Amino acid sequence: MKALVIGGGIGGLSAAVALENAGIDCEVYEAVKEIKPVGAAISIWPNGVKCMHHLGMGEIIETFGGPLRSMAYQDHLRGEVLTQFSLAPLISRTGGRPCPVSRAELQREMLDFWGRDRVQFGKRVTHTEENSDGVTVWFTDGTSAHGDFLIAADGSHSVLRPYVLGYTPERRYAGYVNWNGLVQIDEAIAPAEQWTTFVGEGKRVSLMPVSDGRFYFFFDVPLPAGLPEDRTTLRADLSRYFSGWAAPVQTLIAALNPETTNRIEIHDIEPFDRLVRGKVALLGDAGHSTTPDIGQGGCAAMEDAVVLGAVFREHRDIESALREYEIQRCDRVRDLVLKARKRCDVTHGKDMALTQAWYQELKEETGERIINGMCETIQGGPLG
After folding, report:
1. Where does residue 47 fall: left (phi above 0), alpha (psi -120 to 50 degrees), or beta otherwise?
2. What is the mean pLDDT of the chain?
3. Could you tell me which residue ranges the FAD-binding domain spans (predicted)?
4. Fewest Cβ atoms closer than 10 Å to its Cβ: which of 3, 113, 135, 342?
């Protein structure tokens, strides 16, 4: 049995490893000639960490995941701590530590684990067809590939998604712009082993430790889509949007490198009622494009892969296996997309009264409520 995996990112490589572990031959096709990760880093929460271990790639996460031991929210103007607490209860309850990791490192190590020479690059899909013999895809270079089934892990702009759904869904602008990058850790900005977030005005500035003594940072600002901003105006834009914010925020703006800082308009897509058509299945961002507000996008793709491998160990009939995959994943990924959207709206001032109420709640927060919410999300995955 042979699977075609379209997409050589986190989701596609996780799926390929999972399927190979289940005894299925895989061919991986990637549209670009060289993968350049979108975004500086990614949060891998304990559900994702468990998935990586389950797939045999746990060493990657343990080696390159940053030391995240506590969490704090701080006032945007004075930098005063609103709440600060240890993440030890989260680690104890979920059986794993959160691991923020550089996307470039994660992508590189996963490619090396799978085998870089086993990925066919420059293979951009135009269309697919299936029949009783399996699935065929055609690429823009005029070539084609045939397999028994196909996993579409081709990202939030998936070419194959309309084939599965029967329509082309619209991406929904979430209402804010995110700037993200990496800087050297400076304790004048934030403690080295803490997830620190400055909040106010429906905006946030957040820092997480990754490997090699670096912070992953991001800025969020509610803005209209399509503003003429780019790297040439980046520092001035951030200085304007965060004028008057606390000294650590100003230090961060001065320290970042505009040439390696990304500016992204954040979108999601309404959850889908299906993930499978015949012998073609959506996986990762192709199947559930979410905002990053609960840090579960990459984790959800890894969960998809774990479930995919499990169903093919149980069912050798392709369509039965893929139906079971869809049953196990549809509600879970819908829940994650909608949870992220709800958190997005509160964080970014869609209803400023609710956002202000959240700021007040943070002053009374012991960490218990936040950790309970995280545990509920994390423990809803296929590995508990």
Report:
1. alpha
2. 97
3. 2-337
4. 342
